[in-house]
Amino acid sequence: MFGLNRAKKTAAVIAATAAAAATALLSAPTAVAAPQPIVGGTTTTTTTYPFMMQITDASQNQFCGGTLVSATKVVTAAHCMVGETTSSVRVVGGRTYLNGTNGTVARVSKIWINPSYTDATNGDDVAVLTLSTSMPYTTASYVSSSQTGVYAAGTTARIIGWGTTSENGSSSNQLRTATVPTVSDTSCRSSYGSDYVATDMVCAGYTSGGVDTCQGDSGGPLLIGGVLAGITSWGEGCAEAGYPGVYTRLTTFSSLVTTQVNS
Ligand code: ARG
């Protein structure tokens, strides 16, 4: 497993230097998993999750997710924004289907990437986008720094995204969602070793796998009790037994995010 983790880190470094869509791909190719019906979820809509944003390139091709936390602020993953500029990205709200043309497209006037970010497996995987124009959608609230209890092992968390529906599959045209239980730090550390930074990350998934975020879901929300508590960050493959998804532990970065939201 550590060999795979090293391969993944290498892939992340390569991806970080590549173009928009490539920055979304963190995992190196691994053994092909059986196709699983995000993996293991169900279809949903941006009417149900109005704060769910597509992060796209200038041609409106989605490569990451984001969460609208105020009319002009979107929380996403730092690894999604590496190599991007305010002119290379768009945020699209109210568009359930990747091939849709509806909803609201906003330009980005500022990209804040957590200055401590280096690689998703080192933590600090959070970014905040400032939109040039307001999104007319209901926002999500996010955890405050004191709400560390929300991650108690076994708590039901909701994941949402347009990412691939199997480890080496293709993206979902329609938005998908699933629920996964949070995983204890001890358990996640035994899966990922020192790549799991408990202060900055939280894991979620079933021991047997089968339900997970996957490539293209990054930057999107992990909701606990309907509140943004995590950001889709990385994992070994997708939905593999013994390898839960890893999410940014937002309580750690809540104050930093608030500074950006109020800026
Ligand atoms: N890094 C991926 C992305 O950029 C997300 C991977 C999530 N992987 C997982 N097994 N939960 O879209």
TrEMBL record:
Keywords: Disulfide bond, Hydrolase, Protease, Serine protease, Signal. Residues 38-262 form the Peptidase S1 domain. PROSITE patterns: TRYPSIN_DOM, TRYPSIN_HIS, TRYPSIN_SER. Residues 1-33 form the signal peptide. It holds the Pfam family Trypsin. Gene3D superfamilies: Trypsin-like serine proteases. PANTHER family: FI18310P1-RELATED, POLYSERASE-RELATED. Belongs to the peptidase S1 family. This is Secreted trypsin-like serine protease.
